[in-house]
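REQUEST FORM: STRUCTURE PREDICTION
Request ID: SP-0412
Submitted by: Lab K.M.
Chain count: 1
Length (residues): 89
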Amino acid sequence: MAEDSNRLFVGNIPFRMTQDELHDLFSQAGAVVSVHIPTDRETGRPRGFGFVQMEDDTAKDQAVQMFNGYSVSGRALVVNEARPREPRF
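STATUS: Completed
RESULT:
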């Protein structure tokens, strides 16, 4: 899965932040392929983290440099390369 190599984990997202807002923010670092903010199954509310897939390594590295520790609504974002999903049993 080469396309997952440019996927970033974004933690500590403000609960009111939308996928569009996250997309707009990360597009400052380069081309964004996709954005996903998981929601809680019970409440439907955002879970406070998300995933941003950048177009290439340059954009991914730039996004980490620009936004790891970046403050949004008083919350410091945690941005790093997403790890592969663990298998569930």
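NOTES: The mean pLDDT is 93.
Reviewed by: T.R.
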